[in-house]
Amino acid sequence: MKILVTGGLGFIGSHTVVELQNEGFEVVIIDNLSNSSEEVLKGIFAITGKMPLFEKLDLREKKSVQEFFKEHNDVNGVIHFAASKAVGESVENPLLYYENNLGTLVYILQELEKKDEANFIFSSSCTVYGQAEKMPITENALVQQPMSPYGNSKKIGEEIIIDTAKATNINAILLRYFNPIGSHPSAEIGELPLGVPQNLVPFITQTGFGLRQELSVFGDDYPTPDGTAIRDYIHVVDLAKAHVIALQRLLNKKNLDKVETFNLGTGTGSSVLEVIHSFEKVSGKKLPYKIVPRREGDITEAYANTDKANNVLGWKAQSTLDEAMASAWKWEQKIRG
Ligand code: WQD
């Protein structure tokens, strides 16, 4: 069974390649290296002892996508991570996001619809819920108009997949991530944010290491217990394992519908201050931070109802916030060491 992982040298992609190899799958990675590096292949090999196939390819080039599927005509499962994912950048450059996140999705699906059987796992996001009415968030919570073109590209991507699955042999699972954090315990792979990190945890670990002067906490006037916003931070290895379980569900034809959706979180919400305190506990370091005004577009809280993932998909996150923060800190020290 050869599995294609697009964006497989990225943060979640590389951790998923490791878990696929651990389950005995042969993996071929497509990545255009716009937000990753070939060095990540060495990290994967260091963990599993298996070197995945790798093709540097831009999925926006339809011809290249067609040629890839001709060459690798034994691919019968695709896990699709490749996408741009910076919320702020998407507001400034929406067309880059619609072309890169949706054009490429269409080209891949056009190749899969030619196959007698095709299994497709889509990297989606809880951002499609916007600020959900009720916590914890279930899969049938209202999908609202996301606050950014990035979020909208995930929402439209899901709709494209649903329409396509209805009309073709493609079976799909949409995985809506909450907030992925941490790194593989080996510290051979991890998050490699380019430039100034947009996300909370890499900014914290870089500040802890002294690369950033202090963390700006975006608002402490939210209607939450300590005033800072709440998210569901899930260890990236737990998230990667969920992808393998979802793929196996389709390969073994256990899916109940042509398209199934699962929220992937821990089910526990943590505030920004709680994440800071977790970092201080696991690192033994005091984290310098200041409270600044809210960031445009941020929501107050989001954490997952994990019943469906636990009971239908048969997956449950194992790591605690402290374990995830400790792995993120270990990785930061490794790459800066
Ligand atoms: C988390 C919390 C910030 C940075 C986004 C995307 C989501 C997914 C994950 C890709 C918020 C606060 C952050 C900082 C802060 N992306 N914060 N200071 O915005 O929940 O989710 O990234 O898959 O789709 O929407 O994640 O890490 O940016 O922020 O106070 O320097 O930390 O306000 O409350 P977010 P985040």
Automatic annotation (TrEMBL):
GO terms for molecular function: UDP-glucose 4-epimerase activity. Pathway: Carbohydrate metabolism; galactose metabolism. Residues 4-325 form the NAD(P)-binding domain. It catalyses: UDP-alpha-D-glucose = UDP-alpha-D-galactose. GO terms for cellular component: cytosol. Its cofactor is NAD(+). Keywords: Carbohydrate metabolism, Isomerase, NAD. The keyword Ligase does not apply. It comes from the Bacteria. GO terms for biological process: galactose metabolic process. InterPro entries: NAD(P)-bd_dom (IPR016040), NAD(P)-bd_dom_sf (IPR036291), UDP_G4E (IPR005886). It is an enzyme of class 5 (isomerase). Its EC number is 5.1.3.2. Homodimer. Belongs to the NAD(P)-dependent epimerase/dehydratase family. This is UDP-glucose 4-epimerase. It comes from Flavobacterium aquariorum. The lineage of its organism: Bacteria, Pseudomonadati, Bacteroidota, Flavobacteriia, Flavobacteriales. The gene is galE.
